[in-house]
Amino acid sequence: MIQCKPKTKTYIALGLVLVVLISGLIYILNHFATQRTFGLWFYLLSATLITLVTLLLLVKMMAAYKFISAGKEQIITRLPLKGMTKHYNLPQVLVWEEEKMISNKREFKQLTIVFDDKNSFTISNHEHDNYDQFVNYLNKKVASKKIDAVKKSKSAKQKNR
């Protein structure tokens, strides 16, 4: 069974960034409480900005914490923070699409799968392990349900006419 899970390296790096942000927020608040060498506007602005960035990073980390497994003619999706696990048989896959982009000389791939209950699941190669194996599995088992970028661009051109 192929299991795509979040990469540990990604969460360690984001966790370190969170530690730095929270340390900076604590420092700013402590500096305000003890020394107050800057104006009030500086403390308000910096504390607000650091708090917003911290919250956005936490939400991003929580949203990307999901697992998907494939094998034995079924796909299992798990969202541990929501406490949800869903089992899908391969015929329940409506469509799937892999988008590729090149950014900073690195290839970024994102896979989106839509199931018959209108739920969708998205993973990327930079944030999840075994991404390529999962795409190969989908190519073998449900290749007919793949949306190609060429088909998509042709249909968009036809709609514009």
UniProtKB/TrEMBL annotation:
Keyword tags: Membrane, Transmembrane, Transmembrane helix
Residues spanning the membrane: 12-32, 38-59
Protein name (database record): PH domain-containing protein
Origin species: Fontibacter flavus
